[in-house]
Amino acid sequence: MVVVAIDGPSASGKSTVSKEVALSLQFTYVDSGSLYRGLTWKAIRSGLDMKNSEAVVEWLAGVQIDFFVETRVVRFTMEGEDPGLQLRSEPVRESVSDMAAIPEVRTFVVRHLRDMVRFGNIVMEGRDIGSVVFPMTPFKFYLDADPEERARRRFEEQVKLEGKGDVNAVLDSLKRRDQKDTTRKTAPLQIPLGARVINTTSMSIQQVVELIAADVAKNMSANRS
Ligand code: CDP
């Protein structure tokens, strides 16, 4: 089974690029962040505070997630409910990094992520895919971009989704999340060993997609011969 691991900070272009790479290679796409977001969404609805890790861990034992593939994208329901666009709502956005910093939560999510190979060849995006989830895969990429460019991209997404946004607030929120993600004790965001680093600041989505898809295709045929 082939696993393409694409890591990087928020709004580095990972999601769009990973989806397109999956389409171009005819692989299945997995957004690992959606699991951390899904758990955060469900936990908020259960009245939990993500800073109370003991309560979160106790709650986690009873959480039921069901995965399915729809048009080459892995999706899930939690307790039978589809979180949909709620995954990108503000309360989820502000608490997800606290949720993702809890070691037991990471173990739980990583176990589910490793299981995704049952869906065939995959492109998985996240923060620790090449370093922790699939460290043995030879297909690792790390996307980055300047914080201002990332804030601009996220701001545009937010305006499309919510009809409004504040670019400085977006920049602050990204920086807060970057800080939490790179400094946490368990599986901090880092460049995985052997990953190809791509700075996307002045690249188009299409350029990045072509670069990754070509690299994977070349290495797949090299590994075969
Ligand atoms: O879309 P964006 O890059 O902003 O976020 P995401 O990929 O949906 O991830 C949301 C949050 O989940 C991140 O800020 C991390 O705190 C956490 N996360 C993680 O810890 N490990 C992953 N493999 C993926 C996400």
What does this structure look like?
This protein has 225 residues and is an alpha/beta fold. The chain contains nine helices and seven strands. It has helices spanning 14-25, 32-45, 53-60, 90-100, 103-114, 129-133, 147-162, 167-183, 205-224, and strands spanning 3-7, 28-31, 65-70, 73-78, 122-126, 139-144, 196-199. It has a five-stranded parallel β-sheet with strand order 2-5-1-6-7. Strands 3-4 form a two-stranded antiparallel sheet. Strand 3 (65-70) and strand 4 form a beta hairpin. Helix 1 crosses helix 9, helix 2 crosses helix 4 and helix 7 packs across helix 8. The longest helix is centred in the C-terminal third of the chain and has 20 residues, at 205-224. The radius of gyration is 17 Å and the shape is globular. The model has no long low-confidence stretch (mean pLDDT 95). The structure holds cytidine-5'-diphosphate. The site of cytidine-5'-diphosphate has 16 residues, from helix 2, helix 4 and helix 8.
- Provide the gyration radius in Å: 17 Å
Q: Based on Cα principal axes, name the global outline.
A: globular
Distinct small molecules: cytidine-5'-diphosphate
Run of helices and strands? EHEHHEEHHEHEHHEH
What separation lies between the terminal Cα atoms?
16 Å
Overall mean pLDDT stands at: 95
What's the number of helices? Answer: 9
Given as residue ranges, the uncertain stretches (5+ residues, pLDDT < 50) are none
Can you give the helix content as a percent range? 40-55%
- Sheet with most strands: 5 strands, parallel
Strand order of the largest sheet: 2-5-1-6-7
| Class per helix and strand makeup | alpha/beta
Relative strand content: 15-25%
Report the count of strand segments. 7
